[in-house]
């Protein structure tokens, strides 16, 4: 029988027999650690492997994105622990000026189609957007990977998610993603590899692919792939890798545990209400919910086109007095493009707070927290109770966040 | 570790209605405000510190206690601390119908007994498993017994890799034992 995408990638990295449920030893092309998890990796490494070399320094990286630059002494200390270890061992650090690690690994051409990439970020599987097997891991796993270049992995089942129909702007990839969270919940693709197909995803831009694949984590999936890839996304990926983009595709007779069909024809903007990313409703049902603050950024919606979409609505308008809108580009490259094309100027003039690249609102510390009673609308990927402070977080796409910040309540672009 | 079974008092993580809490995420288990902590000894005090109804867990827990949770336990972040906080409290094992992949791996790699059990929702609903009960679980045979309620249940036995890592104590020692990551 043929193989789905995940099994082909794993098979290219192991001599073991690959089949769902089998545990294999898999080679890892890229192993990385962040300013969270990273110091623990260093500590583990120095305890377990003192004086022993890394498997391959050219495949090992630190990426600082959680608290960048450090706003607490603990984070400052932790980042320095990683820097010292990296210097001693000849390892590259993408420091606090770089942005979100997964996006940096993509832009640097390190995360590539058909490759295996691990790091201390649960959204590492966002790299499924490029056809790479990204996987978040804890610090014990990553320490072992630094030293050995390998890990054990249980080959997951694959599930085919066929999307029927299309939708039009201002409905975005984020709205599609939120809708899929509503339909799939945390059970349907749990612990599986998902392959999304259909006209609604085939033509997605790279930013849109990243949005969808990032939130497979919230669906409890192992990873999501979008085997069809439009010309625009392909061109952007090839710009990073400088090589033709040729991801594995599943075999015609590949074995899937399940096929799920979902109708997304004419989908409207969606919002996830607290307290979970699966608590999704059409945005119109929440229209009028008062908000205090907004956030645009994160690995889910931190690309150039996400901010351009917000700026299109904010240009010539203002963030409502008494509200605030935080803008955090995913990476320094995104920031540079936003600067060069005048998007940051538009956002600034509309009253937004423009912050340096990083994980932003998803991490405690980088752009502040929400206070008790505060209502935030965010393009992030999690709204669990207490995650970003004591306030309440609604999740939406950039257009809905921008419109909501202009009006001071949850709204869509059509309300402006 | 030579022991392949564990006996201890159980904590069943239920909500106010008595239902097992599902989708408990790593921010509820070990909040991101404490991610900068790298010392195991400091972690126990924050276990379940953001889970409604269970914030006093570290004060109530005793070494050897077992924890029972609802499906998709450990959703969210990759933080090892969400496992380490229970190791710091010297907990005996965790049982849930399912886990996030990363959480499950983190526990396996640390040699901490983490077991899947499909019967937990019905056991809890039928009051055949309640906080305070004394239970015994065999990690290899999958046999479980509630000594307080006098009823048997079963869990999925450890996989070969999980068992081997557990026996060697953790992934590092396991790797050394056959020349990987030595």
Please supply descriptive tags for the structure shown above:
heterodimer; A: alpha/beta; Aconitase, domain 3; Aconitase, Domain 2; 3 domains; five-stranded parallel beta sheet; 18 strands; B: about 180 residues; alpha/beta
Main sheet characteristics of chain B: 7 strands, mixed
CATH class of the largest domain in chain A: Alpha Beta
Number of beta strands of chain B: 7
**Most extensive interface, chain pair and sizes:** A-B, 51 and 40 residues
Q: Overall mean pLDDT score of chain A?
A: 96
The N- and C-terminal alpha carbons of chain A lie at a distance of 54 Å
Describe this protein's structure:
The complex is a heterodimer of chains A (416) and B (182). Chain A has 416 residues and is an alpha/beta fold. Chain A folds into three domains: 150 residues, Aconitase, domain 3; 106 residues, 3-Layer(aba) Sandwich (Aconitase, Domain 2); 146 residues, Aconitase, domain 3, CATH 3.30.499.10. Chain A is built from 14 helices and 18 strands. In chain A, the strands form five sheets. Chain A has a five-stranded parallel β-sheet, with helices on both faces. In chain A, 60% of the residues are buried. The model of chain A has no long low-confidence stretch (mean pLDDT 96). With 182 residues, chain B is of the alpha/beta class. Chain B has one domain: Aconitase, domain 4 (Alpha-Beta Barrel), CATH 3.20.19. Chain B is built from eight helices and seven strands; from the N terminus they run βαααβαβαβαβββαα. Chain B has a seven-stranded mixed β-sheet with strand order 4-3-2-1-5-6-7. In chain B, helix 7 packs across helix 8. The radius of gyration of chain B is 16 Å and the shape is globular. The two termini of chain B are 20 Å apart. The mean pLDDT of chain B is 94. The chains are: A alpha/beta (416), B alpha/beta (182). The interface between A and B is large, with 51 and 40 residues.
């Amino acid at each position: 029988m043929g193989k789905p995408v995940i099994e082909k990638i794993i098979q290219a990295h192991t001599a073991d027999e690959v089949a769902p449920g089998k545990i294999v030893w898999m080679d890892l092309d890229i192993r990385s650690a962040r300013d969270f998890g990273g110091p623990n990796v260093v500590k583990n490494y120095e305890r377990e492997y003192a004086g022993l070399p890394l498997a391959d320094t050219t495949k090992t990286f630190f990426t600082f994105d959680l608290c960048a630059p450090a706003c607490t002494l603990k984070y400052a200390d932790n980042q320095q622990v990683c820097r010292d270890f990296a210097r001693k061992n000849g390892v590259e650090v993408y420091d606090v000026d770089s942005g979100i690690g997964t996006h940096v690994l993509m832009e640097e051409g390190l995360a590539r189609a058909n490759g295996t990439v691990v790091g201390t970020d649960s959204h590492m599987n966002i790299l499924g957007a490029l056809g790479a097997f990204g996987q978040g891991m804890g610090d014990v796993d990553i320490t072992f990977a630094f030293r050995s270049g390998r890990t054990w992995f249980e080959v997951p089942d694959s599930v085919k998610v066929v999307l029927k129909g299309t939708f039009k702007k201002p409905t975005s990839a984020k709205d599609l993603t939120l809708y899929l969270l509503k339909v799939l919940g945390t059970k349907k693709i749990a612990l599986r590899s998902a392959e999304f197909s259909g006209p609604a995803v085939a033509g997605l831009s790279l930013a849109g692919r990243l949005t969808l694949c990032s939130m497979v984590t919230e669906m409890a999936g192992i990873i999501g792939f979008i085997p069809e890839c439009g010309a625009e996304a392909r061109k952007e990926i090839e710009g990073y890798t400088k090589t033709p983009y040729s991801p594995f595709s599943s075999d015609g007779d590949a074995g899937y545990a399940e096929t799920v069909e979902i109708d997304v024809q004419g989908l409207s903007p969606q919002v996830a209400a607290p307290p979970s990313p699966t608590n999704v409703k059409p945005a119109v049902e929440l229209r009028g919910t008062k908000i205090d603050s907004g956030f645009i950024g994160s690995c889910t919606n931190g690309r150039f086109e996400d901010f351009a979409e917000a700026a299109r609505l904010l240009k010539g308008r203002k963030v409502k007095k008494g509200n605030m809108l935080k803008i955090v580009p995913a990476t320094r490259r995104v920031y540079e493009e936003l600067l060069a094309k005048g998007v940051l100027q538009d956002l600034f003039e509309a009253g937004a707070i423009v912050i340096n690249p990083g994980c932003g609102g998803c991490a405690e510390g980088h752009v502040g927290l929400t206070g008790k009673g505060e209502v935030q609308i965010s393009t992030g990927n999690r709204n669990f109770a207490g995650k970003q402070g004591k306030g309440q977080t609604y999740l939406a796409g950039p257009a809905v966040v921008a419109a909501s910040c202009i009006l001071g309540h949850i709204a869509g672009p059509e309300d402006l | 570790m030579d022991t392949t079974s564990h006996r201890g008092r159980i904590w069943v993580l239920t909500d106010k209605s008595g239902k097992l809490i599902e989708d408990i995420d790593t921010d509820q288990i070990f909040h991101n405000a404490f991610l900068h902590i790298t010392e195991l000894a400091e972690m126990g005090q924050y276990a379940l510190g953001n889970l409604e109804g269970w914030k006093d867990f570290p004060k109530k827990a005793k070494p050897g206690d077992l924890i029972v949770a609802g499906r998709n336990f450990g959703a969210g972040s990759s933080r090892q601390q969400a496992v380490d906080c229970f190791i710091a409290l010297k907990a005996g094992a965790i049982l849930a119908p399912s886990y996030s992949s990363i959480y499950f791996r983190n526990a396996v790699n640390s040699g901490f007994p983490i077991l899947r059990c499909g019967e937990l929702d019905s056991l809890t609903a039928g009051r055949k498993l309640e906080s305070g009960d004394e239970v015994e679980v065999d990690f290899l045979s999958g046999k479980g017994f509630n000594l307080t309620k006098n009823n048997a249940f079963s869990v999925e036995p450890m996989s070969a890799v999980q068992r081997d890592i557990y026996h060697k104590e953790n992934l590092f020692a396991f790797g050394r034992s056959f020349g990987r990551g030595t």
